[in-house]
Amino acid sequence: MSTPSASETPAWRPPGPPSPARALRARRGGPIPGLRHRPAVPADPEKVKEVDRRLEAWARHHDLFPAAWKGDFAGFQFGRAVVLQHPGAADLDRLAAAGKLLLAENLVDSCYCEAEEGRGGSPRGLGGRLVLAQSAIDPFHGDPVHEGEWRRGVQADGPLRSYHWAVKDFAALATPSQADRFVHDIARLHLGYLGEAAWAETRYVPRTWEYLVMRQFNNFRPCLSIVDAVDGYELPEALYARPEIQRITALACNATTLVNDLYSFTKELAGDPHHWNLPRVIAANERCGLKAAYLKAVEIHNRVMEAFEEESAVLSATSPLVERYAEGLAAWVSGNHEWHATNTHRYHLPNYW
To answer: Long-range contacts: 337-340, Cβ < 8 Å, 24+?
Structure first.
């Protein structure tokens, strides 16, 4: 498939967003009406408090917080996120390890990718930054002189340090296969970042199916595919690699990533009205208003979620181990939805109901 050049890109843009102030007065939080989701296991407040304590101490120790993150740590609710997402976690050490990975992924995204004031991110030159980020978890092997320079380079940069130490701590609790799985899933994530950045640079308007493909890479997969490691067991590589297991993994990841598109919609409109998310892509392609596009995006999420639930139920009947893994995926999806629906520091719903 050939990608249209910037000169061939449609000039039309969807209508502007509703007044953010009006939307925020109407709805501040809670679940999206009509969105298919399952109740999450409530987060134990003591676990949340302890995971947050460990994560903040770890981040301070490695000097990971840039000045622009002032106040963001508490607002993001990292501890509550991982406790909700991993209700079957074997212990607090594994919950903290999941939290470190989540924190590191958000640090790289914010500082390398997001073109927000004070963050330093930009689509321009992103590939160079991300290949170095990948090396922080997929180590460089070369001559001693250049290996030494690489090590010093990794430790001199906050986002690179966060990747390096988060994966080091995770690998101490996971099997080599699980750690390697995570490394490959981060590479998938970086590929998605690059696809989105390329569209931003060329002002390309993706078709809806193209956007959904990008979101299968630029999504939460590195978080979901560690559910067995966090729960204290391993889904063997030979089983994990089977196409039907890969499919339910991808469906779960896609469903929860579309949840993010829907809950962050108003926030993104206020911060960058030209940022692509599923409702905006639908509006651009179907030349409809944002409300109609948003409700169509809810329907797309629901169909993806339905496919995950139906297909994982069939696979779960084939093996207790597969059933445990599928339940872990479902728990992550439910917990992540609960985190989005209740985190009013970050998310507010539009006035569409």
So the answer is: 337/31, 337/35, 337/37, 337/38, 337/40, 337/256, 337/259, 338/39, 338/40, 338/43, 338/84, 339/77, 339/80, 339/81, 339/84, 339/85, 340/259, 340/260, 340/263, 340/264
Structural tokens at position 223: 């978080």
Residue in this structure with the two tokens 């989540």, named with its chain if needed:
102
> Rounded to an integer, what distance in angstroms lies between the CA atom of residue 340 and that of residue 35?
12
What pTM was estimated for this model as a whole? 0.90
Q: Which pair of tokens denotes residue 162?
A: 């966060």
- Residue 14: pLDDT band with limits 50, 70, 90: very low
- Render pLDDT for 138-188 as a digit per residue (tens, 0 to 9): 999 999 999 999 999 999 999 999 999 999 999 999 999 999 999 999 999
